[in-house]
């Protein structure tokens, strides 16, 4: 069983699935916006990350999805909403495809789509090297927030990532979210979906998400958050929380 942190005790159950640079603390800022009497949240730490750093595995999207479902079964959650950041946005789509009758709402934050990522060779090389290079990780985080944020914040994200991830897992997850193709599985989905993107994210833009999500979800809202890059839960936490809450209650 993968590790997790819990918040709240309400009827509406929510999974938070972190991204490539995240861990179980990724969605902690949401606790400022969600009533613990209304929601019960589980912030997952996937294999090789955070509190699950020593848990071995394949380190891929399918395993992330199956591990989340296993936690839901362990907690006796018959229905729940799923929220995922970046690579977690790819994994939650597999959850919704695997147990569609159990997923209430889907919230994909700066998400990777179900398709393979069309990296150019230089960018692919940078991401591969990030497995063992803090400098490459910093370049990626800084670029994904349009070089607008302080070095102290960027360094903090990178330091936490280096300390809180197993190198083997970090590299394997990247190859999975970049290469895996679920385009045939994620199709004509009835799940009520919200995609949140930062207006200052130069890569995961609203237009990119229109291409990757619009034709796959019958009920879809794509919302652009001003003042944010790739990490809206950190960059604009209260605005982010308000949009999440509105979708969960809709």
TrEMBL record:
GO cellular component, one term: membrane
InterPro entries assigned to the protein according to its UniProt record, in alphabetical order: AB_hydrolase_1, AB_hydrolase_fold, AB_hydrolase_sf
Keywords from the UniProt entry: Hydrolase
Domain of life of the source: Bacteria
Keyword Hydrolase annotated: yes
MF terms (GO), sorted A to Z: hydrolase activity
Domain spans labelled AB hydrolase-1: 17-210
Matches recorded under PANTHER family: AB HYDROLASE SUPERFAMILY PROTEIN YCLE (PTHR43798:SF31), MONOACYLGLYCEROL LIPASE (PTHR43798)
Protein name per Swiss-Prot or TrEMBL: Hydrolase, alpha/beta fold family
Source organism of this protein record: Caballeronia sordidicola
